[in-house]
Design brief:
Layout lengths: L4 E10 L2 H18 L3 E7 L3 E4 L12 H7 L2 E4 L6 E4 L3 E8 L8 H16 L7 E3 L2 E6 L5 E11 L2 E9 L19 E2 L2 H5 L5 H19 L2 E4 L4 H6 L5
Parallel strand pairs: 1-2, 1-12, 3-4, 9-11
Antiparallel strand pairs: 2-6, 3-5, 6-10, 7-8, 8-9, 9-10
């Protein structure tokens, strides 16, 4: 049986959060209008806090002065979940997936994103795990710490927003929030676990491994786009 094709794009450097959100919405429209399987963005952001639909402002622990000093912006968004952090050194994945080409089951899709991240971590001999009822991926069963957060939105059975995997981010920024609204558990990164600092180029390679893992879990044929999706859409190309 032929696999559906899922196009993905790896970005270098950091991408402004609002720019990435706008691109997701354009891609959502493109996927819906052309009845396509979907696309995947893999990128990094400048420092931001995002508050999902169930977020409490009380979980943002610092005021405007600290946010200005640290250069952290705050956005309220339509994904599920509470407050989380994005920043350089963290790989963010935005799967804009038409669930009609997979399974019309949002909970199953969340579990599939977790499985994608767990599969990726095995490359580093790290056993990630689920920690119900919390969505995401955790490490260290004796003292669970979150290494990847997940929060999506779904309209018309097409997903957007996605996951954030801590590779080498500034973990001090997580102290300014109650990550995902969970007060009694810590946050960690691949760097903390392995003791290695991962360069931009190493993280760029990791984005390909994440795409491969997603293809394995979802059963899609992953194909990389070399040009920016903005350029592809402006040319009227149907992905």
């Amino acid at each position: 049986m032929e696999k559906y094709r899922l196009w993905y794009k790896r970005y270098r450097g950091v991408i402004d959060y609002t720019q990435a959100l706008g691109l997701q919405k354009k891609l959502w429209e493109h996927v819906v209008q052309n009845d396509l399987p979907g696309v995947l963005l893999l990128l990094e952001h400048p420092p931001v806090f995002t508050l999902g639909r169930s977020a409490s402002r009380e979980n943002l622990l610092v005021g405007e002065e600290v946010l200005r000093r640290e250069g952290i912006k705050v956005y309220e968004v339509e994904r599920g979940g509470d407050i989380t952090y994005h920043g350089p050194g963290q790989i963010v994945g935005y799967p804009v997936i038409n669930l009609r080409f997979w399974r019309k089951d949002v909970h199953a899709f969340l579990r599939a994103l977790e499985e994608t991240l767990i599969l990726f971590l095995r490359r580093f001999q790290i056993e990630g795990f689920r920690y119900p009822p919390h969505t995401g991926v955790w490490v260290n069963p004796e003292n669970p710490e979150k290494i990847a957060a997940i929060g999506i939105a779904v309209r018309g059975w097409v997903t957007y927003h996605g996951f954030a995997l801590n590779i080498s981010p500034n973990l001090a920024h997580f102290r300014y929030i109650v990550p995902c609204g969970i007060r009694d558990k810590g946050v960690t990164s691949l760097e903390c676990i392995t003791g290695n600092r991962y360069s931009w180029e190493e993280r760029y390679a990791m984005k390909e491994w994440l795409a491969e893992a997603m293809g394995t879990v979802l059963g899609f044929d992953m194909q990389e786009v070399q040009e920016d999706f903005e350029v592809v859409l402006s040319q009227g190309v149907i992905l």
